[in-house]
């Protein structure tokens, strides 16, 4: 090795066959510069340079950061993802099959079944069991069997979560023969299963549809809100089926298979027996319901619109019958309604899906007069014997040419009338006077009219055990100013006093109000369900009568109104009911609606007069006069009821 004194000429000879000295190994460029700066003294040149603090800091920071990242990631997995991985491990080791629980039955008051469960078959996909390789082999054949297009099936397959064991419905209510054919070849369709289910079969669906409602497959939105439901489950959508869902549904059974890592079954067995749903017994009399439906159907077919019949036991608020006509076939929904059929129902001019019993809002017409009369008695506006002269109209304003005239239905009027005759003959001018005031009679005014009508249940929800109820409407001067931008006039109060103008009620509200008059002043909460029983007919729950309000009107004033409504039958607008074998009391009503002079036909009343057991309401939309259209229906119902009482007494 030769070392030149000139730094630029220094080099290590690589052609020299000599050994390299140890110090030459670390003799780098920096050491070389130090070597010459030290006068060629190698002992004064460092062979190593120590790392500075900055280097240690950077390295240490990186190590600590990596440690913290690993720590927090491990913490996140163990704490926040624990349930996910636990569930995944469970899925990999266990398969749970839901065994559908039979739904409870709905009975009428006499234990006649109004619905039954019929077997059905659903074709479902279990995404985790689906093999992509085998889909192309069987998708065509599967499509032919179940009647679902290949494109639709392929879309479901491609968009499903392959780690999920939650079933996806491919076809509802498959024909039994096709279901058997598919089951026989099920091993060829990996990931496909035939699930046994049950659909509701509604007896006389058209007649009971608005009460019982229907079930259908649970929707995606409902699945988010409801626990312990599967996409293949049915759920109550409307009516009794919806309101008492928690009782009727029951509890599905559970069949569990434990698998190894290769999905071979290690053991399996029934872990939980399905629990049959509880049954609901209604207060409805099925025979009365059918009679009322047929009577309404005939009347409404002539008017071309709809109608309502309600019967209530005035002693406890139990509903004996409730018909909204026309009805619809709820079996269409339970079996999976087609879009064509659904659109047909929606577009029908008769509003087939509309529950007129609880949601229909109608001008009550003269049906409201007994309650206006009761309010006037309570407020001492009149006495039972106070007579008012009915001349056929009353005029507001001194100038005959500019005065507002409010007419009675009877030209020339009714002469001197007290409240009994006013209700019996439906004297409009009498109720104009006690409602809005005229002459020396001050009148109730709208505030007091509203107060007393609300005590009878108007302008409020009743609490009936089906959803979708309307509260009706009683207007106020403030409402008119805010919504219409007009002042309140005395004519508005006059109109409200005879059930016209802005006031609306539901048929159920009229039924409850007339029941309150019939029973002497107790407003009951209406109830469709009497009790809940289990599969062994053991009573789970009984529904006792619930009082909404009582003692809000004096007994003597109630009795005045009762006598007046009896006079309506004995010597008033419902005289044809005198032919019945029982004493009946009631009130007719003819309510104008729209702008073409059409009228709704009302009747409300009860029987027997002395000891009421049934109170009814009849409404025929656009039917005309209550006395000529609704009273005949009431007569037929009361006659049937009286005959049944005679049969039952033998």
Can you offer a commentary on this structure?
- The protein is an alpha+beta fold.
- The protein has 3 domains: 23-80, no CATH class; 93-278, Alpha-Beta Complex (Penicillin-binding protein 2a (Domain 2)); 288-328 and 355-537 and 552-649, Beta-lactamase.
- It contains 24 helices and 23 strands.
- It has a 5-stranded antiparallel beta sheet with strand order 12-11-23-22-21, sandwiched between helices. A 4-stranded mixed beta sheet has the order 2-10-18-19, with no helix packed on it.
- A hairpin with a 5-residue loop joins strand 8 and strand 9 (265-272).
- Helix 12 runs antiparallel to helix 24, helix 16 (369-378) packs across helix 19 and helix 16 (369-378) runs antiparallel to helix 23 (555-571).
- The longest helix has 27 residues, at 53-79.
- It starts with 21 loop residues before the first helix and ends with a helix.
CATH architecture title of the largest domain: 3-Layer(aba) Sandwich
For the record, give the distance between the C-alpha atoms at the N and C termini, rounded to a whole number. 140 Å
Low-confidence parts: 1-16
**The level-1 CATH class of the largest domain:** Alpha Beta
CATH superfamily heading of the largest domain? DD-peptidase/beta-lactamase superfamily
Say how many strands there are. Answer: 23
Strand order of the largest sheet: 12-11-23-22-21
- Counting H and I runs of at least 4 residues, what is the number of helices? 24
Please state the overall shape, judged from the principal axes of the Cα atoms. elongated
Looking at the structure, the CATH topology of the largest domain is Beta-lactamase
What's the average pLDDT?
Answer: 87
Query: Could you tell me the strand content as a percent range?
Result: 15-25%
Task: Report the major sheet.
Answer: 5 strands, antiparallel
Question: Which value, in Å, is the CA radius of gyration?
Answer: 42 Å
Q: How many domain regions?
A: 3
Quickly give the structural class: alpha+beta
* Residues in helices, as a percent range: 25-40%
